[in-house]
Amino acid sequence: MNMKSYSCGLILLLVVMTGCFPSKELSGNKKLGKNETHLRLVDSIIGLGLDNEALYTLVSDIKPMSSLANFSYPFYTSDTALLLSGNIVDLSNNKVAISDLETIVEVLRKLNIKGLEFAMVPFRYGHDSLRMMQLNVIRKHSLDKVIARYQEFFGYMGIVPGTDPSVVLSTVENQDQLIRLRGYGYLFGYPKYAVDFFVESYFKESQTGNFVERDFFQIPAYTGERGRFVYAIPKNHRPSDVDSSLYYKSVGILNNYKSRRGDYMRKDSTLRALDLVRDFNMK
Description:
The chain is α+β, with helices and mostly antiparallel strands. The chain has one domain (4-280). The protein has helices spanning 10-18, 36-50, 55-58, 80-85, 95-110, 140-149, 151-154, 165-173, 177-187, 192-208, 241-261, 273-280, and strands at residues 4-7, 65-73, 116-122, 131-139, 214-221, 224-234.
């Protein structure tokens, strides 16, 4: 995954990134209204996804889920006294971070694109006082299909087709690592053999301390040929029909996106990403 990471001060950063395009060029989702900050935020994040592997969720059913961006906020602690008190986050020193989160939640609540859902999921553990959170896009019918296909796995967690996507993600995130890795592998659209290999390699490494050698199968995105839609495969593995089918289907979607992307560029070279995704999903 090639995800952009943001820290607090998000809204100001994204306004700068997307430029000050005129109000008459804002369109997109009716529920978002004409709030320029919200629309810039949406266009920036969705545009980032379109140019990377989230393209294959935003405009196709290749990946049931993709990550759009990671966010980090100074909310994490292992201080027992703070955890016991419940007064963990110093609100007076984290007004910007809380405001950022409130804005993101408000925008996601209003965002309505046919077939898609957006979910912010906090990672189970933090690092260096930072709480990491991942913003994901989910294609709902693809999510239900993968849950049905692997019902013997997802049923263990009480997940069935139709379960709210945010519940699915939060449940998977908070499982033991063997379950968590397999769950994410399925949700991110990797072939079963690759998911099996990755989970088994993790288990072997945890038992022996020895790294299991591997190769990587690469599927391109707009921003590059490698390191975007990528998954681990056994060393010297010869790509199968499953890999080839996934590759060529993805490349077809990518070429379509490349051919249409220029039609959604503003005069200041920013992308009308929300409009593009909406139009793709209207067909």
